[in-house]
Structure formats: structure tokens, C-alpha cells
Design goal:
With 385 residues, the chain is an alpha/beta fold. The chain folds into two domains: 214 residues; 148 residues, Rossmann fold (3-Layer(aba) Sandwich). Helix content is 36%, strand content 16%. It is built from twelve helices and 13 strands. The strands form two sheets. It has a seven-stranded parallel beta sheet with strand order 3-2-1-4-5-6-7, sandwiched between helices. A six-stranded parallel beta sheet has the order 10-9-8-11-12-13, sandwiched between helices. The chain is globular. The two termini are 27 Å apart.
């Protein structure tokens, strides 16, 4: 089942911010639109309407972004599902008045070099840079090209919580599920860029850094915090029609090597039986073979959303009860679905489900995501539901 297209015809555009955003995932682009929605405009949008034109070809990059609207630079991933969702989000961004530039920086020989050369004039002159993933090696390589004194980091899911902790402690910009692995020569080479990126993203006398987040992240001293309440999502879509059934949200913890696949299948089957779940909303990085097996052995209808789940859920229809493993959505869905009557229930990860290759931090980190969601949003654990 594929989610239906979303229409934003007739909606007011995002104010011109004169900023440049580097994004690599659909969720990052969603959060950039949320940021632009509440960010005070600095320059009016182009009166000729060029901001809404199709500018997916990266050839002609403007040299002075501060003189125009928000420019979104998409550093495209390789996997088809993420690319499809990003193209749908790019359509929404153009509808909102943003200029979208699409770059194939991965999967092709010389892609990174071509991207860096094309973006150099833009990044060198931009006054406000918005970053979707500070852990991205691609972003870390491009960051030295930027001299912006205003930087904003928007949510890239639960990684935001790691990002602020690392800035506060001075550690390496490495995601939690990779922190326990042996470093390769390539990791050591990129360590130079990682260290430079951490310094660049640390607030200073001549550099203002802002965190725009819906997560329970504590920014280090000197970093401004602006809360993402999903105002753009709530103003554009919904409220949704709710179903009497239960929906289950999938996770890519198997694909990242954290959770054993057989354990995961057994847990999903048990949850579906106990809670009467009918649909399974797949994470964009879940493997096709795994999803086929889930459908065959649990009877769940597999839904592959074509947009971030916050938009799909807000548009509806959505189950009256939604079960989720530890992930970003246990913090974002309560905001996006506030006032709709939808009940979010969190599923804890048992330590016995983890693989031998899982990071030593895995269980603590995943448990912390659920506990903070219960405290902040009053969510119930699956065992009590």
C-alpha cells in the first residue's frame, strides 16, 4: 500500500529566509520546512515567482543566497525509498516557496568532488547555514567551505540527543550504533573533518549556533534552543480521520545490526496478536525481504509511506492506537497528532533482543528514548496498554 499524494495548493509560501539548508533525508527536509515556517523573514521572496521553479539540476547555483528565499540543497541518498520520499518532500518545499537543488554526491565516481565544486560559491557566501545531519561525512567535508556566522542544526531524529552530548563532552561526531566498532583507515581519515566540524558547530564569539529540535536534547552552553512544535505540519494537514484499529510503526534496528532479526519477527508477531494491530508502517530503510516475511507470518498489511510518518499520520487515516519501538516518532507524533485523540504506546527493547555486534551503548540509549517520551508526553508502555 502506498500513501496518497498530499496537496498544498493555495497554501501561503514559507517566508524568504536567505538561508541555505543541507539535507540528506525526508525527515531533515520536513524539519527545515518547520524551521522556515517560524523563522522571521529577512528578504522578501522573489516577486517573479522563480523560487517555485523546478531547479533540480545543480548546474546554476546562485552566488548570493542572502538575496533570495530559502535554498534547499538535497545531497541525495542512494536507497530508492529515501530518494522517493525526498522527491515528494522537495515538491512540498517548492510549493512553499523554497528553491531546491538536487545533487548526486553519492554512488558515482567523482560525485563528492563535483558537488563540492558546484556548492563552493554558495557555501562561501551564505550568511545562514541550516544543517540536517552533523554526523554526515558528506556535510563534514562541505562544512569547511562555509563562512556563515549563523548556523542552525535541525533534528535528524534521535541523533540530535547524541549531537548535543558530544558537543558538551568534546567527543567524536560518530553515531551511537557505530561507536563500538573498530575504526578503519577511512574512519581515521574522516576523523580530521569530524574534529573540524565539531569545532565549527560549537558556539563562539563570532559564531551563533542554534538548535531547532523536538527532541529532549540539552544544548551546550552558548547554543540557542528553539523548540519544534510541528506548527507547519499541523497548519497544513489534518486533523486526520482515526480508525478503531491499532497501527504498528516499524524500525530499522535490524538493518543497522542492533536487533536480531528472528527476535524482531517474534516480537512483531506477538504485538500484532496482543494489540490487534492491522497495519505495519515500514521505516524507509527496512529491507524488502524482511517486510515480505513480516507480512506472510504476521498477517499485517505493510505500508510504505511516501512521506515522513508525521505527515502521513497527520493526513490520516491513522489508528486510534499507535505502537512504536524507540525512535524519533515517540517524540514527534505526540506533537503532530496533538488534540486528535490518537494514543501513542511505546515498546521497550529487551536487552536479549540485541545482537553481539550491537554497540555497548545501544540498550541504554534506546531505553532513554522511551523513558523520556513517557515523561514528556505521558506515553504508556506496551506492557501496560
Amino acid at each position: 500500500m502506498t500513501a496518497e499524494p498530499v496537496s498544498t495548493a493555495g497554501q501561503p509560501p514559507v517566508p524568504g529566509t536567505g538561508a541555505v539548508a543541507l539535507v540528506e533525508s525526508p525527515v531533515q527536509l520536513l524539519n527545515v520546512l518547520e524551521w522556515a515556517h517560524i523563522h522571521p523573514p529577512t528578504v522578501p521572496a522573489d516577486p517573479a515567482g522563480r523560487a517555485g521553479a523546478d531547479t533540480s539540476a545543480p548546474a546554476a547555483v546562485p552566488d548570493e543566497p542572502a538575496a533570495g528565499p530559502l535554498t534547499v540543497v538535497v545531497l541525495s541518498p542512494v536507497d530508492p525509498t529515501s530518494r522517493g520520499q525526498l522527491r515528494r518532500m522537495a515538491e512540498l518545499a517548492r510549493d512553499e516557496g523554497a528553491v531546491v537543488r538536487w545533487f548526486e554526491a553519492r554512488g558515482t565516481r567523482g560525485g563528492l568532488l563535483r558537488t563540492a565544486l558546484s556548492l563552493a560559491p554558495l557555501l562561501f557566501r551564505v550568511r545562514h547555514l541550516v544543517i540536517g545531519d552533523p554526523f554526515s561525512r558528506l556535510v563534514q567535508v562541505l562544512l569547511p567551505l562555509c563562512r556563515a556566522r549563523e548556523l542552525t542544526v535541525v533534528d535528524d531524529g534521535t541523533a540530535t540527543m547524541e549531537f548535543t552530548e558530544i558537543l558538551a563532552t568534546g567527543g567524536r561526531l560518530v553515531r551511537w550504533h557505530r561507536s563500538g566498532r573498530r575504526r578503519s583507515p577511512l574512519d581515521a581519515a574522516f576523523g580530521i573533518f569530524s574534529s573540524a566540524a565539531r569545532r565549527r558547530l560549537t558556539p563562539g564569539k563570532r559564531r551563533h549556533v542554534e538548535l531547532f529540535s523536538a527532541m529532549p536534547a540539552t544544548p551546550p552552553p552558548g547554543m540557542a534552543l528553539r523548540t519544534n512544535r510541528f506548527a507547519w505540519t499541523r497548519s497544513r494537514f489534518g486533523p486526520p480521520r482515526t480508525l478503531t484499529s491499532t497501527d504498528l510503526i516499524g524500525t530499522s534496528l535490524v538493518e543497522t545490526g542492533v536487533v536480531d532479526p528472528e527476535r524482531y519477527l517474534a516480537v512483531v508477531r506477538s504485538l500484532a496478536e496482543r494489540h490487534g494491530a492491522k497495519r505495519y508502517f515500514a521505516h524507509r530503510r527496512e529491507a524488502v525481504d524482511k517486510l515480505h516475511r513480516l507480512a506472510a507470518e504476521t498477517g499485517l498489511e505493510i505500508v510504505r509511506p511516501d512521506l515522513p510518518l508525521e505527515l502521513v499520520a497527520r493526513r490520516g487515516p491513522i489508528g486510534r492506537t499507535v505502537l512504536s519501538f524507540p525512535s524519533t516518532v515517540v517524540h514527534t507524533l505526540p506533537l503532530a497528532l496533538g488534540g486528535t485523540g490518537v494514543r501513542i504506546v511505546v515498546v521497550d527493547i529487551d536487552e536479549e533482543w540485541l545482537t553481539a555486534a550491537a554497540s555497548p551503548r545501544a540498550h541504554t540509549f534506546l531505553t532513554g528514548i522511551n523513558h523520556s517520551a513517557r515523561d514528556l508526553h505521558g506515553l504508556a508502555p506496551a506492557g501496560d496498554a
